[in-house]
Specification:
Number of helices: 5
Largest sheet: 4 strands, antiparallel
Number of domains: 2
Strand content: 25-35%
Radius of gyration: 21 Å
Helix content: 10-25%
Strand order of the largest sheet: 4-5-6-7
Structural class: alpha+beta
Length: 235
């Protein structure tokens, strides 16, 4: 498994030098962690064990040089303002009203907890702690649930040499997606979430248990392997 580290790179010419955060797995070239606006700079301070989430700061030129807390994820591929993320995707706008999150300095190995600096509604600097909830390795779509959408991603990459975010959960650097990865996904299985899922309309009885689902998948995958072998013989 890759051991991730984060740092800072200086890019640009003589007239303009910009700082951008980077992540590095010790094997390939460092990867720039860019913000959504090319006029902004980024700094990274901590990274999860699998390299999928990185906390830091975004320096915004349109805010007088002040910084805002930033979070980079593999799903987005960009360093995004943490406060906007918590407001738009986690519904914490009311809780964060009047606050300004200015930096993320520590993040746990599993990505659940983040700590950093902020300015409270009274204008006084304070620290903050964010609980992002339990991170499931098999939540490939990043929606907080391990369900058929994640299973679809894994099966689409079956027997392919891809990364963990595409379903290669056990040994992404050495083996293709296989039954070991499927076992991990089924162990993390939560079923569909309350939003945009068939659970509410069809009832809990319509969602198969992981053990039942595993048997069905094994039969289907064995069938797929048999068809491939038969095609090779016919060819």
């Amino acid at each position: 498994m890759a051991r991730w580290s984060v740092g800072l790179a200086r890019i640009g010419g003589l007239e303009r030098v910009q700082r951008q955060a980077v992540r590095w797995d010790g094997l390939s070239a460092p990867e720039l962690l860019l913000p959504t606006n090319s006029n902004w700079g980024t700094v990274a301070f901590d990274v999860t064990a699998d390299g999928s989430r990185i906390g830091g700061r975004i320096y915004r030129s349109d805010s007088g040089g002040n910084s805002v807390a930033g979070l980079w994820t593999e799903e987005t591929g960009m360093m995004l303002p943490l406060q906007k993320l918590l407001t738009n995707q986690y519904g914490l706008g009311e809780v964060l009203e009047g606050w300004q999150l200015t930096g993320v300095y520590d993040i746990t190995d599993d990505g659940r907890f983040m700590t950093g600096t902020a300015i409270n509604p009274a204008g006084i600097p304070e620290g903050f702690l964010v609980d992002m909830g339990v991170t499931l390795a098999a939540d490939l779509t990043g929606n907080g649930f391990v369900d058929f959408e994640d299973l679809t991603v894994l099966l689409a990459n079956w027997n392919k040499q891809v990364g963990a975010a595409a379903g290669n959960l056990v040994n992404p650097t050495t083996t293709p997606v296989n039954f070991e990865d499927l076992t991990v996904l089924l162990a993390d299985w939560t079923g569909p979430g309350p939003a945009a899922s068939p659970e509410g309309a069809l009832g809990a009885e319509a969602v198969p248990e992981p053990s039942t689902l595993a048997l069905a998948l094994v039969a289907a995958l064995v069938g797929m392997s048999a068809v491939r072998r038969r095609r090779r013989v016919l060819d």
